[in-house]
């Protein structure tokens, strides 16, 4: 029919919480706060990026709930690897739902989350071994 809007493909409700969208949100926050970001030292920048990553995740989770309230959020662990300059690599992790602290230095999570934690621990152990060698 003339005048009808073209039919849009259905929205993947999980895409809103994916790493591409979260990184885009972090980029927007960094752009908006570039004058502050430029004045920060490296440690402050890392803290700001981690804060923005958490903020972006929270805002996007709220948007997800507003748009798809009846649909459950997928359980997930997202690992983001960023070049940190030279040979350094920055690794960021986000978990949906949040990990549960069960005390004594232990956490409970979904199978994907526990797998991601195991991977992170392996990377940390490997990195420690290289530094000691």
What is the terminal-to-terminal distance? 71 Å
What structural class results from the helix and strand content?
alpha+beta
| Contiguous helical run count | 4
Strand order of the largest sheet: 1-2
Order of helices and strands: HHHEEEEH
Mind summarizing the main beta sheet? 2 strands, antiparallel
Overall residue-averaged pLDDT value: 79
Overall strand count: 4
The global form is globular
Low-pLDDT runs of 5+ residues are none
Radius of gyration: 19 Å
Q: Which strand-content bin applies to the residues?
A: 15-25%
Total number of domains = 2
**Helix percentage:** 40-55%
Describe this protein's structure.
The chain has 2 domains: 12-72, no CATH class; 75-133, no CATH class. Helices cover 51% and strands 20% of the residues. The protein is built from 4 helices and 4 strands; from the N terminus they run H-H-H-E-E-E-E-H. Strand 3 (100-103) and strand 4 (106-108) form a beta hairpin. Helix 1 crosses helix 3 (42-68).
């Amino acid at each position: 029919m003339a005048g009808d809007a073209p039919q849009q493909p259905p929205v993947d409700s999980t895409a809103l919480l994916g790493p591409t969208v979260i990184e885009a949100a972090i980029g927007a926050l960094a752009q908006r706060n570039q004058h502050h970001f430029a004045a920060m030292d490296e440690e402050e920048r890392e803290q700001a990026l981690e804060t923005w990553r958490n903020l972006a995740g929270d805002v996007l989770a709220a948007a997800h709930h507003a748009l798809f309230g009846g649909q459950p959020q997928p359980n997930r662990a997202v690992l983001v690897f960023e070049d940190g300059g030279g040979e350094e690599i920055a690794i960021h992790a986000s978990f949906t739902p949040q990990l549960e602290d069960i005390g004594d230095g232990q956490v409970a999570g979904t199978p994907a989350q526990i797998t991601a934690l195991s991977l992170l621990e392996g990377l940390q152990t490997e990195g420690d071994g290289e530094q000691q060698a």
